[in-house]
Amino acid sequence: MSGQRSVRARKHVRKREAVSAGQGPRPARFYRAVLAKVPLPLRGLRSRLVVAFVLVATASALSTGAVAFREARTGVLQQSQDSVIRQFRTSVDAVAVETPVAPSLARLQKAVNQVFQANQSQGRRVLATYGSLRAYAPSADFDKLSPELRRSVDTKRAAVFQRVNDDGHPWLVVGMPVTYNSGEGTESKLSGLVMYLVVPQDTEQAYVEAMVSAIEHATLVALCLAVVLALLAASGVLRPVRALRGATRRMAEGHLGVRLAVNGSDELADLSRSFNHTAAALEESVAELRRLEAQARRFVADVSHELRTPLAAMSAVTDVLDEKALRLDEETSEALQLISEGTSRLSVLVNDLMEISRFDAGAVELNLDEIDLAESVQSTLASRGWQGRVETRLPRPGVLRTRVDPRRLDVVMANLIGNALRHGAPPVRVSMGGREERADVAWAVIEVTDSGLGIAEEAMPHIFERFYKASTARTRSESSGLGLAITAENVHLHGGRISAANLPGGGAAFTVELPLHRDTAAAAGGAR
């Protein structure tokens, strides 16, 4: 028993694992597989509403038609059957009075003829049996009697009927046993004489087929009406849905003042009201955030601007004191050095904040000039005394020329090279080349690499964010945390791209791509 329980438990665990692995129950998988095969335009709400209406209308029409057909068919056949049996019984009763208890063949034939005359109609046939005697009218073609009907007539005192189908033609076969009373108060007895009547029911079959055709036409009309009603209902449902979709798209584009017209009091009207309340709250929140952001930007700009004048005076004083530092005592000299370094860092931070505030205010202008990119990089290295510390791999003069802002390109290269020198490890390399993307689009690619530890993976997505420092140990370093952010802003201002990555052998690589003009694209291709 324990072994069986353990087997069931393992099966249960495997089933749960299959469900948790995304396989899901079979009906759900089947539904998703079927839905995946449905063309995309047919998965919309309009198509589903039309299909639902058509299915409901079809089911209703078919069920109503089936019930109506069954009742009407039963009524037609029952009426015809009752009429035939009533007329047949009347004629048999009239003939039975004149027929002896043990009739001869001639007398039996006379009775058949009389019954046939009373039930004369197109296609009807009469048969009488008494023992081995048989009498027919109008002919002996009598093959519609089944053994079941014969046995039932021989054992019952009432009329027995059966419907048969012969070569697609329906027939009603009625068997009527003749009974007599032997005395007063006694039960009637079978005389042995049996009358049979065969009636064609082509007319009734035509009525039934006419009903089927009418039901089919009614079903078709119901389906057409269901499609029309479904389209009208879908239009009424989809109209506010489309309006909501358009409003959300406009809101996503920044039009927060968009609102929906509310009509009615149904669920869609409630949805429109909820959207309007949400949009109003979002607009208010965004307006407040923009106001606070504008205040913060203005505060940074004002503070940076107000600090520039005292910082300029402090820098002038520290420059004078630096010249006299060698003649001061050691403690005073160290204090003076700390003040000078702090003033220098504060000056860099204020300049970076002023630059960032100009970017935020959209007040940055490019002073474009066509320059040689390789010469610009060499000038950046020379002005900062980095020639001996940085390896270069630059194209020949005049190969890569484009229109840029020389001062901002100098800031980009100084920030990237200085960052590699401060936080990487030698050798630091600067390489430059050209890359043709299409016949009319070419790029100048500048790459700055180092051989340090590289950039931490968790820091990679934030490397160009403001005030972000990849290492907490550098929170009090010379870096303000704005250098790479300003670098990225300057590159984007030129329509370029910048990215950071780690090298396979160690170290970080910063890549700047600047667009080249068409007249320099051919030269860039030759530089590769």
Main traits of this protein?
disordered C terminus; 5-stranded antiparallel sheet; alpha+beta; disordered N terminus; 528 residues; single chain
What does it look like?
By secondary structure, the chain is an alpha+beta fold. It has helices at residues 2-20, 26-37, 45-98, 105-118, 147-155, 202-252, 267-323, 330-361, 373-383, 406-423, 483-493, 518-527, and strands at residues 125-130, 133-137, 160-166, 169-180, 189-200, 369-372, 390-393, 401-404, 428-438, 441-449, 497-502, 508-516. The strands form three sheets. The chain has a five-stranded antiparallel sheet with strand order 2-1-5-4-3, sandwiched between helices. The longest helix is centred in the middle third of the chain and has 57 residues, at 267-323. It is rod-shaped and about 165 Å long. The relative contact order is 0.06.
